[in-house]
Amino acid sequence: MRVRLLAVGQKMPGWVEAGFNEYAKRLPTDFQLELVEIAPGYRGKGADIARAIRSEGDAMLAALQKNEKVIALEVGGRSWSTEQLAQEAENWRMDGRNLALLVGGPDGLDARCVAAADQKWSLSALTLPHPLVRIVLAEQLYRAWTLLQGHPYHK
């Protein structure tokens, strides 16, 4: 299974890239994690925020591949413990499709992206900076995979 993280935002600080890459490289090829950066919509002075979100949504929807299982990271989504995430990951693998995880920009995901999702997942009730979400997500996927492999990393 290939997991693609479609995330709004480009040109992240080095520590974000290093953190994400550290966990992504630890995952095996049958649970490969790939980052697809989506250009953020214009948010300068006098910007139309709805237009920015719509632009991000257009790009995100265009980046989805046929037959991918789509999971929107949303504050209103389901929250999982590490063990529950591992079980979800196993379910995703058994589903036989590749996975697309959607992370919106500073104003959230376009409603069309949320509507296109097969599942909605909340990483936390806390508000997390979008760059940090990439690292937390990669680490949690790695942690879930290690749990499925019987490794003690989840403790």
Describe this structure in words.
This protein is an alpha/beta fold. The protein has a single domain, classed as SPOUT methyltransferase, trefoil knot domain (Alpha/beta knot, 3-Layer(aba) Sandwich), CATH 3.40.1280. The protein contains five helices and five strands. Helix 1 packs parallel to helix 5 and helix 3 packs across helix 5. The radius of gyration is 15 Å and the shape is globular. The two termini are 25 Å apart. The model has no long low-confidence stretch (mean pLDDT 93).
Say how many strands there are.
5
Report the structural category.
alpha/beta
Assign an overall shape. Answer: globular
- By DSSP (H or I, 4+ residues per run), the number of helices equals 5
Order of adjacent strands in the largest pleated sheet: 2-1-4-3-5
**Beta-strand fraction estimate:** 15-25%
Q: Given this structure, which CATH class is correct?
A: Alpha Beta
Question: How would you spell out the order of helices and strands?
Answer: EHEHEHEHEH
Biggest sheet descriptor: 5 strands, parallel
Name of the CATH superfamily: SPOUT methyltransferase, trefoil knot domain
Using only CA atoms, what is the Rg?
Answer: 15 Å
Helix content: 40-55%
CATH A-level architecture: 3-Layer(aba) Sandwich
| Whole-number count of domains | 1
